[in-house]
């Protein structure tokens, strides 16, 4: 049973923007949902998370550039990414925070390159 489904990735030039979307199973509508990413050759890392009450947290490298939001009624969480940099290139995933290993989805690829 799929709990988290990511979409919205793509290829952009440095300075560009993308909005990622995460469809969240309703069983997690009251949970903290996180956006994670994994770059080639690196470990997966937490980028941002959002509480059901809308409080948010961001990793230092994305503060001021990324915005996480959610609509609990629609079971959706978004990650608006602005001023993208080549180092943002990664596969992006959503999952509960703390994550549940069994619920990693396919992720969505984000490539930032000129």
The total count of helices amounts to: 0
- Helix content estimate: under 10%
Class inferred from helices and paired strands: mainly beta
> How far from one another are the termini?
38 Å
The largest pleated sheet is described as: 6 strands, mixed
Provide the spatial order of strands within the biggest beta sheet.
Answer: 2-10-9-4-5-6
Give helix and strand order, one letter per element, not per position.
EEEEEEEEEE
The whole-number mean of residue pLDDT values reads 95
Content of β-strand: over 45%
Molecular shape: globular
* Spatial extent as radius of gyration: 13 Å
Name the poorly predicted regions. none
Q: What's the number of extended β-strand segments?
A: 10
What does this 3D model show about the protein?
With 114 residues, this protein is an all-beta fold. It has no helices and 10 strands. A 6-stranded mixed beta sheet has the order 2-10-9-4-5-6, with no helix packed on it. Strand 4 and strand 5 form a beta hairpin. It starts with a strand and ends with a strand. 30% of the residues are buried.
Give a short synopsis of this structure.
The protein is mainly β and 114 residues long. Helix content is 0%, strand content 46%. A hairpin with a 5-residue loop joins β5 and β6.
